[in-house]
Amino acid sequence: MSKIETNSIMGVSGEGSSPITLSGNTATLSGTGVNFPTGHILQVVNATLSNVETPETARTSETVVANATNQITITSGNKVHIYAQVTLRGIASSNVVLEARLREGTDTTGTILSKSNFMNNNTSATFHSPHFLIALDDSPASTTPSYTLTMLKGSGGTSSVSLKSDDASFLKIILMEIQA
Q1: Percentage of the chain surpassing pLDDT 70?
Q2: Does the structure show a pLDDT above 90 at 65?
Q3: Which of 102, 132, 107 is nearest to 118 (CA)?
Q4: In this predicted model, what pLDDT tens digit does every residue of 87-113 receive, in sequence order?
Q5: β partners of residue 84
Q6: Whose CA is closest to 19, among 43, 63, 162, 10?
Q7: What distance in Å separates the CA atoms of residue 2 and residue 151, rounded to the nearest whole number?
Q8: Element (H, E) at 22
Q9: Which distant-in-sequence residues (6+ apart) come within 8 Å of 151 by Cβ?
């Protein structure tokens, strides 16, 4: 059996430091010469949320639940995959219609990237509905994009919508940089 031992690997025409260094059985990629394939996840950020809505505060129009403001820094041209989770509470006199939206920016006017609806044609009651939103922002507004989770009540007998809980097990936004 043959064995080759080295502590770095560089191309024939390479200059400067090696883009691949080895230490024991560990290889490290570094420098600007590293190219990842299209679609490769480069980083994952569990966003620290700001502007978080007070739980169980009744709202009758679209309201910001939480912002993920400048939580990820990406390379220009790359994409951002967003996963968001929120549990909403709706109060209704005849049926309940709730909607969660994931938007670009930090308010209720940004482009809608994803939305999730809940409807129940039951008698008057209070409902809790989990919403899971997934989106791909294929042209982020900047290299430090911001995203917002919003909520609103639908038509029918829905009198209000509110955030069920601001606990991380109910409310989160996860951002992933994707190689373009």
Answers
A1: 96
A2: yes
A3: 132
A4: 999 988 878 889 999 999 999 999 999
A5: 133, 173
A6: 10
A7: 63
A8: strand 20-23
A9: 53, 59, 62, 63, 65, 86, 88, 98, 99, 100, 101, 161, 162, 163
Task: Note the pTM of the prediction, 2 decimals.
Answer: 0.84
Residue type, 107: D
74 vs 102: CA distance, rounded Å: 19
Residue pLDDT, tens place only, 113-159: 999 999 887 767 888 999 999 999 999 999 999 999 999 998 778 88
Q: Order the strands of the 20-23 sheet from edge to edge.
A: 8-9, 20-23, 26-29
Q: How far apart are the C-alpha atoms of 127 and 71, rounded to whole Å?
A: 32
Tracing tokens 């220009």 back to the chain, one arrives at 76
- Residue of 133, 57, 54, 53 lying closest to 91 (CA atoms): 57
